[in-house]
Amino acid sequence: MERTASKPTRRKRPAKEESDDAEEYADSSAGDESEIEEAEIGMIADEGDEEIDADVGFYDPGEEDVEFVEKLIALAGTASYGGIDTSQLTKEICKQTRVGTVVRIGEEVEDIAFISALSSSTHHALLRPLRKLLVRSAVNEEAQKLKAIFPKEGESSKMGLLVTERVVNFPPELVPKLHEAIFDEISWAQEDEPTKELQESFKFESYLYLTSGMTNSTGLSTKLKARKKSKRKRRKKKGQNPVDEAPAKLEFFRYEDDIIYNNSSLVLSFSLPGQAPVKGGLVLRRFAIFFPATAVAKIREEITKGIGNGS
Fold it and tell me: Which of 14, 32, 100, 304 could form a disulfide with 176 if both were Cys (CB 3.0 to 4.6 A apart)?
């Protein structure tokens, strides 16, 4: 599938200071067209270790991105979305041009990343299978928290599903810009979406972020279990209540996942088909991480700091 040579049309964005390591949004100089400036990024070529310069651009998603977004979702595995129709999910992501970003190298190359946020109030039917899976997974206090954050259809919902996938060798210096882009667009959408209903739909109070990780815990809330076991371990060191059980381990693949996890209000996990434990007893699981909108500023700051510190 060939991409058109012209860049996608973008709505006007507030002017932002230029950055040396990534693209910044620029105001349009003609009508309603506005584009993200491209930056030259050093990337490793597929053949050999020679570093090459590549033009990287951030763009609004569109119909031409459907094939590439679907491929990126397939890399995570369709089961990773808890029963959501990933073909329909892809269409909704690419149809929502004002809140969402795709990243591509050059004009004729596939997308290498995307990020989007879908409102649970306008995508109830799409998210229904995932909610059913999480309701079955949650127990006790977790179940009560889940119902409050992710209510059933017909009840008022202020949650956004944060969806992002990228290639393995995605330039790490672009990760903060990816998250800046989506949270800025969510903020703007609350004021400049064409209808009051759409503006209200982006006034999220919480987010659901899906990601994968390796863990030795078969529990559904690894975060809570890890905390509990950590306390028991400390008691054991003090000579209190010896415990044979080893503390839970959790390893994410993306560096920002730890940041989002540490700022979460609820964490659930579910198994993926065909996954067997690897060395050390770790197994691949999918994590549903909920975090409040009030934590967004801190998450953005820590993601940027993490890159600056060489994470």
Answer: 304
CA distances from 282 to 192, 245, 276 (A): 46, 15, 8
How many C-beta atoms lie closer than 10 Å to residue 254's C-beta?
16
DSSP string, 201-216: HT--SEEEEEEEEEES
Closest Cα to residue 118, out of 88, 75, 80?
88
Quick: pLDDT tens for 234-253: 444 544 444 444 557 899 99
Residues 6+ apart with CB under 8 A from 66: 90, 91, 94
Q: Cβ of 103: how many Cβ atoms within 10 Å?
A: 24
- Helices (H) and strands (E) in the chain — how many of each? 9, 9
Mean per-residue pLDDT, 192-216: 95
Under the banding of pLDDT at 50, 70 and 90, the label for residue 265 is very high
CA separation for the pair 51, 213 (Å, rounded): 30
Residue 156 region by backbone torsions, left for phi larger than 0, else alpha for psi between -120 and 50, else beta: beta
Q: Are 127 and 120 in contact (CB under 8 A)?
A: yes
Judge whether 16 and 181 are in contact, CB under 8 Å: no
Q: Residue 272 pLDDT > 80, yes or no?
A: yes
Kindly give the residue spans of alpha helices, DSSP state H, lying in 238-263: 255-262
Do 212 and 260 form a contact (C-beta atoms < 8 A)? no
Residue 36 per-residue DSSP state: B
Range from 4-13, 35-44, 213-222, 267-276 carrying the lowest mean pLDDT: 4-13
pLDDT of residue 218: 58
